[in-house]
Amino acid sequence: MPWFLLLYLLKQMWHQTSDVSADQKIRIPAIIWLWIVSMIVMLIAILIGLVDFGYDIREIIRSSLNWARDWALFAILPLLGYGLQIRPQLIYRAACNLCLQSLFVIPICCFAYFAQLPNRLYSSPLERLTQNGQIYYNVELYIRDADSGGLRLALFTPWAPALGLISCVFFIFALQETNKTWKWIGLIGSIVMLAFSVSRGAYIFLPITLLLIWGLQNIVRPAMQIGAGLLIFIAGLFSAPLLDGVNASIEAFKNTRRSSSNLRAALERTALERWTEAPIWGHGKQIQGAPVFKEMPIGSHHTWFGLLFTQGIVGFLAFAIPLASTMILLAIKMHKSKVAKVGLSVLLLILLASMSDNTEKLAYIYWSGLLTVGIALKASPDAYSSKLYGPEHNKSILPSS
Q1: Domain limits at 317?
Q2: Is 280 strand, coil or helix?
């Protein structure tokens, strides 16, 4: 769908005439060009890595197709959000609608688990085209946790942590819904989805994002600055016990699913060590891991270590530079535009998730978030800016549209 919409946008740009009004004329800003150029550089890094390690033309074609469905979306979707006339309210309502559907499907999945019905409904043959993993093409009712055998759900996503990530995005969207009924449906649905994903990361991504957005929103207030200074001073006095508490919390977090934590740590170490074999352009693709890694590919389970391994320092910078630039720009705009806050929240969630997953592989799942980023980049100052120092400024962490 994004590629078809891109063709539609290019057609509109081609047929633009000189008498089109300034507010209707489609222009591509520098930040979108940065994403476009960076993702093209990403493709070049993939191709050079594949050629360096002697992969044949079939692997080059498959990797190019995979690039078109993951990395390319980071440039295409913000471009569509910026260039097309899309109201963010439509995206918010659609997310709430999907949350409602999930509330109906989740009990069915739970029944299938407790009744010990087969979990896999269908496997798409399309996997033979790209050969990027059967897991992306399986439709499953439920997942059994590898450690405890407990219930986990993925619903419309390839694995449970992906459901946790998209539920966080939908929670942010639901906060913007103006209709109270749909808003509560979206909030409840996203929380239920988050709970059944049993994703440790997603459990902390959402509160961290909300807290960071609240801090950035209020950082210009003198009271906030004074309070932050006092908090830092007190934290300095009790730094030793605080650090011990943080370390204990991290260890307890890892122990909740120890085998998964050990596997991730081993994959990250191996990816970083083998990056030195091809530091500039990388290996071109993930490599199947040994049995000690439970057959998980080297370069998986971490976006940044994965980038260093597969696309080298070139690919690492090709993602880091536009991501950081966009977040800074939206952080500046968020005081004048509500949708800019939403876009920044989405990017914060993606950044946090990148520490434990290959977020580019899930771009087709959280595509609506990337579309919102493009809308946010185009958004003009709205009524929210008048609330910056007004009495209604702190009504919510993310005010409704």
Answers
A1: 29-236+257-387
A2: coil
